Each structure stands twice: as C-alpha cells, then as structure tokens.
Amino acid sequence: MKQIPYAIHTIKELQACVEEVRETSRQLKHLSGVLVSVFMDPTKKAMLEGIQKAIQAVFPEAQVIGSVSSGEIVNGQLLDQGVAVNFTLFEESTVRVFAYDFGAKKSSSAGRELLSILQADRDAAAVEIISSGFHLDINPFFKQLSAARRKIFFFGGLADDGSLGKNGLVFTHSAQLHHGVVVAVFSGKTLHVQGSSSFGWKPLGRTMTVTKMEGDYCLQELDGRSPLEVFERYLAIRNTDDFLVEALTFPFYFERHGTILARHPRRCRDDGSMMFGADLHVGEQLRLAYGDPGDIIDNAMALQEKMASFKPEAIFVVSCVARWMLLGSDTEKELAICKHLAPSAGFYAYGEFMRNSSGEIMVSNMTLVTIAMREGFCMGRQSNVVPSRPKLKGHRSLMARLVHFIETTTKELEESNRQLTHLAQIDRLTGLFNRGETEANLKTLLQQTREYQEPLSVLMMDVDDFKIINDTYGHAVGDDTLKSIARILHKNTRRGTDFPGRWGGDEFFVILPGTTNDRAREIAQRIGELINEQALLPDGAVVTTSIGVVTAATDDTPDSLFKRADSALYEAKLIRGKNNVVVH
C-alpha cells in the first residue's frame, strides 16, 4: 500500500504528479485498487473537470472522491488556496465509491442501500463519508449505517465552501452533488485500520437545558431564553456580520450516549435562535466550551503515540475549522503529528463524522479525526520515537495560562455550587433531606413508579411526647434525640435508593421505592424497635415513635399520599396510643 499526496495549483503540475504516481505503481507487485482523494479551495472549482481528465487519462480505473473545502491538508501542512490530490495505491485491497443525492433519494433510503452493500462485503474495513449541503438531513442515513458490523470504521466530514448558508460541492469521478454524500468503501482481508480522535475543548460556566427546538438544527431556547442571550451575556458576542467568526471557537459542549460532543453555531437569526450544522435534542444539557491550545497539542501528541505503534502506511485526516481558527499559525504543529509516521492528506470540515464504542455513527464539531491504514503486518519503516511536544507561539502560550486559570476557577465554582446545592437540600440539624427536597423526590419517584409499574411505600414518623422531652431535659437533649433518630434512619435505609427526610419539628418522612406494603411494615417496625433501644434519654428513659405506613396507589399524587400517611400516623398516635405502626 502506498499513499502519495500532492499540493498543486495548476493542471500542468498535476499531470507531472500523475506521471510520478504511474512510475511508483509499476514498482508494486500488484495494483489492486486506486483511490484519488481531491480537496480544493472554492476558488479552484473550475479546475475540477481538468483534474478528473488528467487522472483518468493515466488511471482510468481510479476511484475519485472529494469536495470543495475550507482548508486542505497535505503531509501535515495547511494549503493556501490550493488543491490537495492524494493517491492511495492498494496492493491487496479494493476501494469503491458511491454517490447519493438526497434531493433524489431520502436519507434513510440511501443509508439502507449502503448498509446492504456493506453487509454483502465481508471484507469491508472502513467507510469514508463526505457530505455537502447546509442542514443536510444526514441523521437517518447514519442511523441505518450504525447497524453495520462493529469492526467497520466510519469517518469523514461535512464539506463546505465557506459561504454561509450555501451548499458546498462533493464529487466522484462520475457525479457532482450539492446536496448529498459521496462514499468510499475500503475492503480487504489484509487491510488494517485504526481510528482515533482528539478533542481539547473544555466546559465553561453553568449547565443549560435545551427547552425548544425548531427541527433538529435550529436551537430556539435554552432554559427558556434565546441562545443569543447566552452568547451576549457570557461572551459579549452579538448578532453582527462577524458572528460566525467570533462564535465558532465557543461551541456548546454536551454528552450523548456516553460520548462527548460539541456543536458550534453556523448562523444567528433575527429572533435570537441559532442554526447548527449538526443536531441537538430537547432536554439535552449543554454548557459553553472553550479551546485549550495546550490541551489540543497534548491530545495530538497522545494520538501520535497511538498511531506510531500501529505503523501506518497511509493516514486520512479530517479536522474542524474551529481548531484552525483557534490555533492560527500553530495549526501545523498539531497537523505535524502525521509527518513522522506516514503520508497524510485530508480537509477541514464544519462537522466531523466518527463512530463511538457502541457502534453509533455521530456528527461532532471541534474534533480532529485520523484514520490510519496499512496492508498486512507491521512492516513499515516508521520509528516509534515520537518527537518532543512542540512549543506554542507566545500569545497562545499566554492563552494557555489563562485557560488554566479559567479551568481552576471553574472547578472551584462548581465545587461551591455543589456545596450550596447540598445545603439547600439537607436539613442542617439531622443531615437528612429537608422537606422541600423530600417533596421533590416524592414527585419524581411517584412518576417513575407509574412508568415502571413498581411499588412505592412511605413512612411518616412522629416522636411521642417530644414537647415533654424538651421541657424536661432541655432543647439540647431534644436536638440530640432527633439526631439519634436520623442516624438510625440513615443506617437502616438503602443508600442511593431510599430517601429519609425530616418533615419538620419532630416529624420524619421516609420514601421507599420498590417496596411493598408488607415489606414497608417490617422496616417501620424494625426502625421503631431500634429507636426504643438506641435513642435513650439521659436518665435511661426510652424514646418512642408513632409511624404511619402507606403504599402508593396508581392514582396517588404527592398531596394525596401525604394525607394518607398523615392519617395512618394519626391513628398510630392518638387512636392506638403511641409507640405503634399503623398500615393503611
């Protein structure tokens, strides 16, 4: 397997490159397949026909795939208004390209069609997908493909010509699409593939909930307010002509199905809503994020070490335009991770495609994706010695220090917020949940009980003659009595499952999810006995409690359940004569 990438600016330059590749191909024992990947600056679109003719004149069997892109990558270098032409020559493997026009075929139908191709190809090892089209409905396509065998790597990205709101262009040797995807399927019994990704963005500020969407790509509200309000408040970014440039490096950060993802806005509308190139869902928890240049370089170095041990013969690269914008002139220090390992080529995207550990194919932003390939065993000449970490430019080194400051203060703020939240939920005297938190927990657990059709029981407790205890022994002893009962409740309920709380004064309320009426009676009786044994007064007198037990009915609300429990407690205390458990 040989990969030979070129940076060209004219057709004449390409013709000379094609001749060099022909000479290289003649030295191979066998040429089983040729893939030519072409990524070009928007100003070079007129060259496409000439590029295709020059390639097919020498390699008529070559499979061509490519796009107009915002940035082209060749051997760890970023091109300036050029064309990246990457020849991948296979000796034992094959490659096939396909084009799907989403204007003529539904996204899900195209996904099913490609899935059937992959299912029939037992040697399929990797799939490259390049898409074009602002707000292309690609999720149904990916949903179908996620059923493909787990061993198949998926990678690629959303190509764009940089003109906001306009479609880019993707192509093969036989098709050109402004609203669809082009696909390369790599197959071979001896074809080995390693996929890796690098992130480097970190969450900033508080968590916000998506409360309103228009379709999958238009975010209308976060916590009931427009996303523009969030950008204006926290970043001083307003809806001007510079919005895209200013907002691109501050994406929303969230977790979906165990994978950290990011979404950067593509456009802000007059009403303050924002358009994104990838989907968001109502209910997802988002935070703003910022890029840490030092962390980005560190992640790239870790990725380099991983690839070095794989010893690739070819590397395909897809990176987010926001990484380029953040790193600026330090961009090539990140791209240089490939220089010492194998020839590499790729492009900058407005959305990167990758597959998570569960097999789901997802769209992310802010990510560097690399796919390393080789045929056969690790016979490459690459060294496992990884160069030292490159130094950032002075102003980005300063930025890295500021990022560290932000990260540290953010962690401190998060810890303070956790402590404040804890204090707001907990009764200070007993350490149990307070009444407000107990009511909130009951409301949530009642709903879950109805959904999963599981039992839920509650105990309502009252200390018998508590006023006499306070009057006789003093309020300090009364407080100690309540603390003793709280300790007994803590030790005799399931941590993380049950919810013991102080209802107020000398009353306690315990929520027992998944607990039947009979089991709740047993728990109440045991707690009552333990209080008799352990919550003794200074002169040895016994403390007793009255307990009402109720199991939720299907039509119970928090209020009706409270009233039923209070009725059971009343019977235990005033009708049965205290120190009793009554079940209703």
Q: Which short descriptors sum up this protein?
A:
single chain, 584 residues, alpha+beta, 7-stranded antiparallel β-sheet, 6-stranded mixed β-sheet, 15 helices, 31% strand
Structure overview:
- With 584 residues, the protein is of the alpha+beta class.
- The protein has 15 helices and 30 strands.
- The strands form five sheets. The protein has a seven-stranded antiparallel β-sheet with strand order 17-16-20-14-15-19-18.
- Helix 13 packs across helix 14.
- The longest helix is centred in the C-terminal third of the chain and has 32 residues, at 394-425.
- The radius of gyration is 32 Å and the shape is elongated.
- The termini are far apart.
- The model is unreliable at 380-385 (pLDDT under 50).
How do the strands and helices of this protein lay out in sequence?
Blueprint: E1 2-8, H1 11-26, E2 33-40, H2 48-58, E3 63-68, E4 72-74, E5 77-78, E6 83-90, E7 94-101, H3 107-120, E8 124-132, H4 139-145, E9 153-159, E10 170-172, E11 176-177, E12 180-187, E13 191-198, E14 201-214, E15 218-222, H5 227-235, H6 243-247, E16 252-256, E17 259-263, E18 265-268, E19 274-276, E20 285-291, H7 293-310, E21 314-320, H8 321-327, H9 331-335, E22 344-349, E23 352-355, E24 361-364, E25 368-375, H10 394-425, H11 435-452, E26 456-463, H12 466-473, H13 475-491, E27 499-504, E28 507-513, H14 517-534, E29 545-551, H15 558-575, E30 581-583
Parallel strand pairs: 2-3, 8-9, 21-22, 29-30
Antiparallel strand pairs: 1-6, 2-6, 3-10, 4-5, 4-22, 7-12, 8-12, 9-23, 10-11, 13-25, 14-15, 14-20, 15-19, 16-17, 16-20, 18-19, 21-25, 23-24, 26-28, 26-29, 27-28
Helix pairs in contact: 1-2, 3-4, 12-13, 13-14
